[in-house]
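Lecture notes, continued. The same structure-token format from the folding unit now serves as the input rather than the output. Read the line below as a description of shape only.
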């Protein structure tokens, strides 16, 4: 074999170190904007340092969760809009740990991408930083990794994890009982769940244009509706738990309302959520119509406009509703805990 006429470089193999260094410089301001007083050091270390004020707690537990944005990333790529997908990534993890009563402390992200374009990384990390500011946690670190040959240029995946802290005595769920009421927190969109079904119905079967109206007469595009950033509930959840007796939170992600509510119910209880007690965003009806999707399937896949459920003492329900609304969220009394056999279901009124 003839020897190659020049030396091969990493960039020619598909990985551009210079682009990665430029991306790091671009994102530094975003990361610093999330720092809490407990953050030690600056951007660029091999690990993030965080000084927990242990004196605030008597018997603390650390709580962690990891998640990603799923195939919502494909919609962001097709729409060439990456500035909000980071908010979604943060929301999935911080709201999970808040559901156990924990205060989010810090978050780390991981971006894998086919070809690293610094401006695209900047867009995504700006969204992650915005999510951290909304969650009141620090973006403590992260990683970006170029994957030529594994992912095509433009393809990416975004995942992350959060760490929080909670007093052992305040861990949720606890004391869920018949007579409790269920508060639903509004979600204006899909958050990060059900996108494979939504794409199959809207883009493949109905052949709708992402850049066209979301439905006849809509003033927003389909892309804008599908990329509606996830609401971050964690601060409002912690505020609610400080002011009323909260027995459980159920983060409505994969599995829909029944699949997540059942996770916080004891053996002797059922949870029923009454459909019709909250405002359902129109996008869900459009998905159901376009894909001829059954009611049961919709309820098992999508949040239907309720992204978080709070199970509260029955006599505190109205007060709890006021707290959630004062924190900036639309909310409704959507259901009840009753005697039963550890089942959750959606009823109709």
């Amino acid at each position: 074999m003839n020897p190659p006429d020049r030396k091969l470089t990493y960039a020619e193999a598909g990985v551009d170190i210079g682009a990665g260094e430029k991306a790091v410089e671009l994102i530094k301001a975003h990361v610093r904007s999330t720092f809490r007083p407990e953050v030690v050091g600056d951007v660029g270390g091999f690990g993030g340092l965080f000084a927990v004020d242990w004196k605030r707690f008597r018997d603390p537990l650390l709580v962690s969760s990891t998640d990603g944005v799923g195939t919502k990333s494909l919609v962001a790529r097709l729409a060439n809009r990456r500035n909000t997908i980071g908010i979604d990534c943060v929301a999935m993890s911080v709201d999970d740990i808040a559901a156990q009563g924990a205060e989010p402390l810090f978050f780390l992200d991981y971006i894998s991408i086919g070809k690293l374009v610094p401006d695209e990384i900047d867009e995504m990390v700006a969204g992650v930083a915005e999510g951290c500011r909304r969650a009141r946690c620090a973006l403590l670190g992260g990683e970006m990794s170029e994957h030529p040959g594994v992912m095509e240029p433009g393809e990416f995946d975004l995942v992350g994890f959060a760490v929080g802290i909670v007093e052992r005595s305040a861990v949720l769920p606890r004391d869920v009982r018949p007579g409790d009421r269920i508060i639903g927190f509004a979600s204006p969109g899909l958050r990060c769940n059900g996108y494979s079904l939504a794409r199959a119905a809207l883009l493949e079967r109905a052949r709708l244009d992402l850049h066209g109206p979301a439905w006849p007469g809509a003033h927003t595009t389909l892309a804008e509706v599908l990329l509606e950033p996830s609401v971050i509930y964690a601060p409002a959840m912690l505020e609610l738990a400080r002011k009323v007796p909260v027995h459980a939170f159920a983060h409505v992600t994969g599995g829909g309302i029944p699949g997540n509510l059942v996770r916080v119910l004891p053996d002797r209880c059922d949870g029923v959520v009454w459909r019709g007690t909250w405002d359902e965003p129109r996008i869900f009806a459009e998905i159901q119509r376009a894909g001829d999707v059954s009611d049961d399937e919709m309820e098992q896949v999508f949040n239907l406009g309720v992204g978080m459920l709070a199970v509260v003492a029955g006599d505190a329900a109205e007060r709890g509703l006021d707290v959630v609304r004062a924190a900036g969220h639309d909310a409704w009394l959507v259901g009840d805990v009753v005697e039963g056999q550890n089942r959750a279901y959606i009823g109709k009124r």
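Point for the exam: Residues 32 and 42 are 8 Å apart (CA to CA).
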